[in-house]
Specification:
This protein has 87 residues and is an alpha+beta fold. 23% of the residues lie in helices and 53% in strands. The chain is globular.
Length: 87
């Protein structure tokens, strides 16, 4: 299936600390999370092991929300959380 990453998603990705490659990876290999308004949510935890805004974080969790339009996945937005999770 084809993935279309919306411009809004790319702008949020840059602000929040992820990129187009990770967004595609989350959609293709991430685990399903709950979503509202008919959207689909996927998430994936990545090793981070560096500072962000002056604080050290072991991991980051990237959550991508998208909708299906026939055989096309269209992203709505992306969120990034920093911390530590059991995978």
């Amino acid at each position: 299936m084809k993935i279309q990453i919306d411009q809004h998603t790319l702008e949020r990705a840059e602000e929040r600390g992820t990129n187009e490659d990770e967004i595609k990876d989350v959609i293709e290999t991430g685990f399903t999370i709950s979503a509202k308004y008919g959207r689909i949510g996927k998430a994936k935890v990545y090793d981070f092991k560096r500072n962000r805004h002056g604080k050290y974080y072991e991991q980051k969790k990237v959550e991508v929300f998208y909708v299906m339009e026939e055989s096309l996945m269209v992203t709505v937005t992306v969120y990034v959380f920093y911390g530590e999770w059991e995978v």
